[in-house]
Amino acid sequence: PRMTGTVVYEVSPLEKIQKTFQEDAKTQILNEVESLDGEQKKILKFVETIQKGTNITEIMEKCLFLKPSGGSRSRVTKKIATINMMELIRKDRGGHIFPNLKQRISKLMEIHNATTEEIESVYNHVLMA
To answer: H/E/C letters for each residue in the chain?
Structure first.
C-alpha cells in the first residue's frame, strides 16, 4: 500500500512483538505452576525458599510434615518427578533436588530481551501464586 507522510510508533513493532512473547512465556509458566496440586506447589515453594539442594526426606519431614516411610515416600517421589519434568526444579542423579524456577523463567524470557527486573517480577509473581 502506498503511504504518505511518516508513521510514528510509540513502541517499535519489534519491541511490541518481544513483549508479546514475554507475556506468552509468563502465561506458560503460570499455567504450569497452576496445574500443580497443593502439595506440589508447596514443594516448589519450599525448594525455592531454602535456595539450596535438598532431598526427599527433608522435603517430607520439613515441608509436608510426613514420615518418610513407604507409601507416602513413593507418592511424594512421583510428585517431585512431575515438577522436575516441567523443569521447575532440578533433580540430580544422586537424588538431590535444587531450585530451578528462576532459571526456567530466564530460559523462556531472555531470548525475547527480558530484563533482569522483568524476570525477577515474574519469579516473584509465580512464587506468590
So the answer is: CCCCCCCCCCCCHHHHHHHHHHHHHHHHHHHHHHCCCHHHHHHHHHHHHHCCCECHHHHHHHCCCCCCCHHHHHHHHHHHHHHHHCCCEEECCCCCEEECHHHHHHHHHHHHCCCHHHHHHHHHHHHHC
Query: What are the chain's domains?
Result: 13-128 (1.10.10)
Going residue by residue through the chain (129 aa), what tens digit of pLDDT does each one get?
Answer: 555 666 666 768 888 999 999 999 999 999 999 999 999 999 999 999 999 999 999 999 999 999 988 789 999 999 999 999 999 999 999 999 999 999 999 999 999 999 999 999 999 999 998
Q: Give the predicted TM-score (pTM) of the model.
A: 0.86
